[in-house]
C-alpha cells in the first residue's frame, strides 16, 4: 500500500478499466496472476478498483481516494470469517477511526457505499473471498475459420438467370460426356476386333498351306467379325446422336425462355427536371402570346 499515492490513484482512474486494474495491481505490489485460475484475487482487485471509481465519482480529493482504497482493503481483511453482525460493528468502528480523515459528507457517502455493496451482499463476499474454492477449469483453444471474402455485388446476377446458366452448363457437360463415351467405345471395339483377328489367325498352323475352302472360311470369319463390330458401333452412334440432339434442343429451349434481368428504376436527374420545367414554361408563354 506504500506505493498507493494520490498521483497513483489518479493515473488508475485516467486509464481504461483493463489498464487501470493492471496499474493498480502494480501499485499494490501484487505479483502477476492468472485472472481465470485465481478468481479470488481477480474479484478482490475489482473491488479495490471500483472503490476508486466510487470515490472519484463522489468528488473525493485524490488524497482521500487513496485512503478509500486503504479503507476497503482493511475492511475486507478484518471481516474475513466474521458474522454479518460482527461485520457491521467492524464497519462502524472503522468509520469512526477514519472520521478525522474525511469530511462529514464524504464519510456518509462512504458508509452508504459499503452498506449497499459490501453489507447487502456480505454472504456472497464471504463465500468468494473467505474460503478456498475448488476450481475445475478446462481451457480449450479452438481455431475459428472466418468465412471466405464475398465477391463484389457488382459481379452478382439475378437468381433465375444463374439457375438457367447452371442448367445450360450441365447440358453442355452431358454432351461432352456423350462424345467422350463414343470415342472410348470406338477404341474398345477396335481393340476387340484386333483381338478376334489375332485369335482367328493363331488357329491356322504357320507351316501348313491352306486350301481354298479353308482360306475362304477364314476370310469370311474375319469379315463377319468386322461387320459385327461396325454394326454395334453404328447402333451406338445413332443412339448417341439422338441423345446429343435432345440435349441441344433442351439448351435451345432454355436459351429462348431465359429470364429477363430485372432493371433498376430510371430516375430523372436534377438537370433533366429543370430542363423539363423550363420547356413547359416556354410552351405556356407561347400559347398565351398566340391568344393575345
Automatic annotation (TrEMBL):
Residues 265-276 have a biased composition (Polar residues). Residues 261-292 are annotated as: Disordered. Pfam families: CLAMP. InterPro entries: CLAMP. Residues 280-292 have a biased composition (Basic residues). It comes from the Eukaryota. This is 4930578I06Rik protein.
Amino acid at each position: 500500500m506504500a506505493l498507493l499515492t494520490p498521483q497513483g490513484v489518479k493515473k488508475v482512474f485516467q486509464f481504461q478499466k483493463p489498464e487501470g486494474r493492471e496499474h493498480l495491481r502494480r501499485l499494490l505490489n501484487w505479483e502477476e496472476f492468472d485472472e481465470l485460475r485465481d478468481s479470488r484475487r481477480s474479484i478482490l482487485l475489482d473491488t479495490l478498483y471500483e472503490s476508486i471509481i466510487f470515490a472519484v465519482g463522489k468528488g473525493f480529493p485524490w488524497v482521500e481516494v487513496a485512503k478509500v482504497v486503504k479503507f476497503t482493503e482493511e475492511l475486507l481483511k478484518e471481516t474475513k470469517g466474521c458474522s454479518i453482525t460482527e461485520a457491521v460493528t467492524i464497519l462502524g468502528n472503522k468509520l469512526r477511526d477514519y472520521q478525522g480523515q474525511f469530511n462529514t459528507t464524504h464519510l456518509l457517502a462512504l458508509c452508504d457505499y459499503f452498506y449497499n455493496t459490501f453489507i447487502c451482499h456480505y454472504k456472497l463476499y464471504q463465500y468468494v473471498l473467505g474460503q478456498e474454492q475448488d476450481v475445475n477449469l478446462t481451457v480449450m483453444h479452438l481455431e475459428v475459420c472466418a468465412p471466405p471474402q464475398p465477391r463484389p455485388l457488382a459481379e452478382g446476377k439475378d437468381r433465375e438467370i444463374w439457375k438457367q446458366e447452371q442448367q445450360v452448363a450441365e447440358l453442355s457437360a452431358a454432351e461432352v460426356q456423350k462424345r467422350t463415351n463414343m470415342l472410348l467405345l470406338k477404341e474398345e471395339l477396335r481393340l476387340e476386333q484386333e483381338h478376334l483377328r489375332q485369335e482367328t489367325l493363331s488357329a491356322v498352323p504357320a507351316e501348313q498351306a491352306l486350301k481354298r475352302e479353308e482360306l475362304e472360311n477364314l476370310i469370311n470369319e474375319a469379315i463377319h467379325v468386322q461387320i459385327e463390330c461396325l454394326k454395334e458401333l453404328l447402333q451406338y452412334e445413332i443412339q448417341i446422336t439422338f441423345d446429343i440432339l435432345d440435349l441441344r434442343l433442351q439448351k435451345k429451349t432454355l436459351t429462348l425462355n431465359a429470364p429477363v434481368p430485372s432493371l433498376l428504376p430510371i430516375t430523372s436527374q436534377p438537370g433533366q427536371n429543370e430542363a423539363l420545367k423550363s420547356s413547359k414554361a416556354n410552351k405556356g408563354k407561347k400559347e398565351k402570346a398566340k391568344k393575345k
